[in-house]
Structures are given as C-alpha cells and as structure tokens.
Design goal:
Elements: E1 12-15, E2 18-21, E3 46-57, H1 61-72, E4 77-80, H2 115-126, H3 132-144, E5 149-152, E6 156-163, E7 166-174, E8 179-190, H4 196-200, E9 205-207, H5 212-215, E10 231-232, E11 235-239, E12 276-277, H6 287-307, E13 317-322, E14 327-328, E15 332-334, H7 342-346, E16 354-358, E17 362-364, E18 379-381, E19 387-390, E20 402-404, H8 413-419, H9 422-442, H10 446-451, H11 453-465, E21 486-489, E22 517-520, E23 526-545, E24 574-583, E25 586-593, E26 600-621, E27 626-634
Parallel strand pairs: 3-4, 3-8, 4-5, 8-20
Antiparallel strand pairs: 1-2, 6-7, 7-8, 9-15, 10-12, 10-14, 11-13, 16-19, 17-18, 21-23, 22-27, 23-26, 23-27, 24-25, 24-26
Helix pairs in contact: 1-9, 2-3
Length: about 625
C-alpha cells in the first residue's frame, strides 16, 4: 500500500457537521455559485497566512520523508496532515507493514536506506515492545525536531490557486481548531496518496486499469476500466487466560469455509491484509461505504474464527483493536512527465534521471476483494533486481512546480502494483523533497534537472550524500575530500580492506564485493585512518555504518513476521567510537559518540579542523565481533 492521504472533494472539506464550502472555487458541477475563502461560514475562524519554500500535502511516510529531506536541504517546509498523527497506512490508525525492495527474489540486500532507514532503526531501538503508538511518536519526534518544518496536523488541503501555469498557493482548513490557512510557496509536493492537491489544482490524473494495448503490458486487463485494488482493514487480537466468547453485531457478514479456500487463516494476533473490498467503487468518494463493508467482513471473519468450530484454539483469544480507517492501495495517480510501465520494472531500465528505486513484486489484487472468493487475493510476479524510478515520474506534466511521491506518482496500474508499497514510497518521498530543496537553491525546476545531465549528476551526488541509494550510481562527489585520501587500518578481514570505505559504494549490492572495511574487535577495539598528502580543513566528517540491510526490518503486530528481525540496535552497527586527528605526533580527540544505532552519522565542526590524518577508533559494536564501516566522507 501507499501512504495514507487526504480524500476531500474539490472545493469541499468533509467535516463532522456536513460539507463546508472552503476552496478557492467550487466547480459549477458541484455548486451553483462560486464559494470564496471569505465565505461567512469562516467568519469566526482564525485565518493564517504562511509562506514557505515548499508545501508538502500528506503526512504518510512519503510526506514525512519528503518534508525532512527538503528541510535538511535548507528549504522552509510546511507539512500538512489531515490526521492527528503521521505515518498514513503505517500509523497506529491503520498498522500496515512498511515493506519494499527487500522482497526481491533471492536478493534481499536492497532494503531502502536514507531517511526511511533512519526511521526504522530508531523505532527498532526505542520500541522493542512493538507498540504502533510508539512508532507514531518516532515519526512525530523526527518531524518536530526539524527547525525548518512547520507541522499542521488535523488539517486538510481544500483549495488551490494556479497562476501563470504554476501552483501559487493552497488553502487549508482545520475544523478541529477552527482555523484556515493560505499557504504560498515556490514548490508544492502532493503526498496525499489520493492526489488531492493535484486534483484541486486541475492537474491531469489517471484512474483505474489501462487496457493491455495502451502500454503493451501483458499483466493489464484486455480492456481498460475504472476498477482499482480495494482497501483493507486490520484487527489485532490477544490471548487471555480464560475463554473469551464473541457475539458479532447483527450486521456482520456470515462466512463458510468455502469463502477461505484462497485465504489462509493461520494466526489471528494481527488480522489479515486480504480483508479487502471496494475496488469496484470509488475508493475516495465511497470511502464511508467501503469502511462499513470492511467492518462487516472483519467482524464476520472473526465470528467464523471464534464460533464456527473450525478453530477451537481461538477459544481464549479476543479482539484487542479494530481499525476504523481503511488502508488504501489505489485511487488517483497524477500524470507526470513520464509514465512508468511494466516493461521498465521488469527490465530495470537505468533512467538517466533516476532518483529512487523499488523491488516489491508486481502485486495485483482483485477489485472485488472478499467478493471475488474464487480468485486468489493477490497475484504476485516477483522481481529479481531493483528497478529505478525517474524524477520525471515525480513531476506533474501540467504544473512544473508540483511534484508527487507515494502511490499517486505517474505510473500505470500494473507498475503501481509494485511502486505503491510504503518503503518504496518513503524513498521516493526523500527524492522529491531533496529535489525541491536542490531546485530552490539552483533557481530551476525539477524538469530542468531531469533534462540537464550536469545538473542531474550534481543532484545524484546530493542524494548519495544523504544515503539515498541509487542503482548503478557511485560517489564521485568532487566536494568529498576523502576521495583524495589513503585508508589504513589496525587490521582487516579478507575481502574487506580499509580502502573499501573510499570505493564509492556504501552498501552491499550483490556484486561479490563487500564494499566495507571490516576488522576484528581486539582488546582495544579497532581503528581506521584516513590520510592526505597535505593538510585539509575539515568542516564535516560522515560515516556510513553497517545496519544489516540483508535482514528485514519493520514493525509488525504479527509474531511470526518478526522472526529473523532484531528488535533493537542492529548488531553489526558501530556503537561507541572516538574521532581523532594527529597534531604534532599526538592524537587529539575531536568527537565522540556512544550508544549509536544509526547507519548515517555526521559530525559538523563550527571551526574547521586542520589535519593530514583522521582516525576512527571503534570502541564497541552493538554485538558483532567485527568493526564495520561502509564509507567515510569528508567536506
């Protein structure tokens, strides 16, 4: 699934008190007369006017990573989320797994890095109890700790103004706070999942399944239609020390064993993604009806588990939590400068403007969900290597300052079946956020970057510097002083020499090389030296550590899925270390870090450190007997 998004109709905010006019204009098909923001309905509401470099609409993982990336790139960001918490489909309100390219067949090395890896590592270290509410807190903390981000929770984008062919501003409203906002920016990023901002701005969008001939896709239906994959609703259950009876509501569905011939009931602590329905309806405008039908299905499934006699081991189990927000797989997609299709995923086309990657199977679900009981709940076509996602698929074809990330990017339905999953969405969110910060600094548009090889090369290095992995792109950053240095070490395991930290690749990529220095931890630890022919003025030193990318790492309420995971700091990661420089034959400490569990760590120096020799002394790992470092960068 993609990130949770905003589902407001053009020019309307759906609130508890009914439909409230709130957009810049309501189209003639929806109202008899235009409704302006100064409508009397808003006279008692507080009005704020905000200016930023970028407005990000949607606070799912794509929006969170986009906002953080843009803010860390120096942009002033407003992040708008229509819920009280961040995370979208990953949040405690929906609780879907954050999955991505680690699902590649026989090639599990490609877990996403960058900001989503930072979020996952932080959650695993701080939340061994596997609480989804603590995951919410990790996301909230990361966002509010960025000084360049203004976060507007409980707020929906409800209108957009386009001037001179670009989005000039958006209108947002919070019924909870009785506040409305006018937000102006140079760039706008639609991470709503439903393409809500794009639709309000009049950008062209796609919906449903293309016919097989349109893009030459063998996995597409013969004839185009407006059907989508459905929505899912999860539950969680807990075992008690006594029998726990269950009486379903009168409106619950009734199921027989025949209904589950393609749907496996194997455990019930986390519910089932195949409790799915609604793809034959409009997953935006029919969301209320879809939720109720999913609740009918969910309670009927639990009734079958508890009361059919087919699962007597469920006697002491009881529902602990029931989702009330359907997890959405598909709705609108924004037409971009490029539409990704099936062939480009299968062939892993190396786009010159690639900014992210994916690797989840092409995973299509029947629109009828549980109503299509004679069909398997999904058809998965696995991929063997990661495919690239081009910047052009993150840029609106109509509005040059509108970008998108998440399940609403410019892809065909078939391609969407893979790109929609949240770790992939998060990585493209980082790419889009970094792109707007880069464009703001360069005073250009994203389409200009995609079309200019020199600019694209510089942007690639910006992405790599922030640990955004790219297929086939290596560190050749002219600003990286370490590229002109020599590496030595206290020792090295065969195949993992110290010079590997300078080879331009900061992860395992399945090419037979480890791309890391690795050495046994002796009594005094292990050390790695970076030496230059002459003194350098170091303003920043950056390390990329090993965090076990070959393992899966995601929060789950399902017990068996965490087998093989490490719910805590990853053992391969350097935990405690000292950074030193040599002055006059003596070592001087310039930085120290204890309790580290992150992959990317930076040390910034307000006053440049002048030295010819830099030494990393690894004092402890999080359990591994070897010190491991993928990359050292210096600026």
């Amino acid at each position: 699934m993609g990130d949770g998004g905003q589902s407001s109709r053009r020019g309307f905010l759906a609130g508890a008190g009914g439909l409230m006019a709130s957009g810049l204009w309501v189209s003639a098909s929806e109202a008899d007369t235009p409704v302006l923001p100064d409508d009397p309905l808003f006279t008692s509401w507080t009005h704020q006017t905000l200016e930023a470099d970028v407005v990000v609409a949607g606070g799912g993982l794509a929006g969170v990573c986009a906002a953080i990336a843009a803010a860390r790139g120096g942009a002033r960001v407003v992040l708008i989320q229509n819920r009280s918490r961040l995370g979208g489909n990953a949040s405690s309100e929906i609780r879907m797994h954050v999955l991505g390219a680690s699902a590649l067949k026989d090639n599990p090395l490609w877990r996403e890095t960058g900001i989503i890896e930072e979020l996952k590592l932080t959650e695993a270290a701080l939340n061994p109890q596997r609480s989804f509410e603590m995951w919410d807190m990790v996301l909230y903390d990361k966002v509010v700790s960025e000084p360049n981000i203004t976060l507007l929770l409980d707020t929906s984008v409800v209108g957009a103004a386009v001037e001179a062919g670009r989005v000039a501003r958006v209108t947002a409203a919070s019924a909870l706070l009785e506040e409305r906002y006018t937000l102006s920016a140079g760039f706008f990023l639609d991470c709503t999942g439903d393409a809500s901002l794009a639709a309000l701005a009049g950008a062209r969008c796609m919906r449903g399944r293309e016919g097989r001939a349109e893009h030459g896709e063998s996995l597409a239906p013969e004839t185009a239609d407006q059907k989508t994959m459905g929505n899912s609703l999860l539950f969680m259950a807990r075992k008690h020390d006594r029998p726990m009876p269950y009486t379903p509501p009168a409106w619950a569905r009734t199921f027989t064993e025949e209904d589950f011939k393609h749907r496996r009931i194997r455990s019930w602590e986390y519910g089932y993604w195949w409790i799915e329905w609604g793809g034959e309806l409009d997953t935006i405008k029919d969301n209320r009806r879809i939720r109720h039908e999913l609740l009918r299905i969910l309670t009927g499934v639990w009734d079958h588990i508890k009361n059919s006699g087919k699962h007597p081991e469920s006697e002491c189990w009881a529902l602990e939590w029931v989702g009330m927000i359907p997890g959405k797989r598909e709705s609108r997609r924004i037409l971009g400068e490029h539409v990704m299709v099936q062939r480009e995923l299968e062939e892993a086309v190396p786009f010159s403007d690639r900014v992210s990657y994916g690797g989840w199977p092409m995973d299509d679900h029947p629109p009828g969900g549980m109503d299509d009981r004679d069909l398997p709940p999904c058809v998965q076509i696995g991929l063997t290597r990661p495919y690239s996602i081009p910047l052009r698929s993150l840029c609106s074809a109509d509005l040059p300052n509108l970008l998108m990330a998440g399940r609403n990017i410019s892809v065909s339905h078939v391609a969407l079946t893979s790109t929609r999953v949240m770790a992939t969405c998060a990585a493209m969110g980082q790419a889009a956020g970094a792109a707007v910060a880069f464009c703001a600094a360069e005073k250009c548009l994203p389409r200009d970057v995609a079309a200019d090889p020199a600019r694209m090369a510089r942007f690639h290095q910006c992405l790599l510097r922030d640990d955004q992995s790219l297929v086939g792109v290596v560190n050749d950053d002219p600003d990286d002083l370490a590229r002109g240095a020599r590496a030595t070490a206290s020792g090295a395991v065969s195949g993992c020499p110290p010079e590997a930290v300078l080879d331009g690749v900061n992860r395992d990529i399945g090419d037979g090389s480890a791309h890391q220095w690795r050495a046994e931890m002796g009594k005094d630890g292990a050390w790695l030296c970076i030496e230059w022919p002459k003194k350098q003025a170091l303003r920043q030193v950056q390390f990329t550590f090993d965090t076990g990318l070959h393992r899966k790492l995601f929060l789950s309420g399902e017990d068996w899925t965490v087998n093989g995971q490490v719910r805590g700091p990853q053992p391969e990661t350097v935990r405690d270390y000292v950074l030193e420089v040599r002055d006059g034959g003596k070592w001087r400490e310039i930085a120290r870090n204890t309790g580290n569990f992150l992959r990317l760590v930076r040390h910034d120096f307000g006053t440049p450190v002048n030295t010819k020799t830099l030494r990393l002394r690894v004092l402890a790992t999080n359990g591994d007997p070897h010190a491991r470092v993928f990359e050292v960068r210096c600026r």
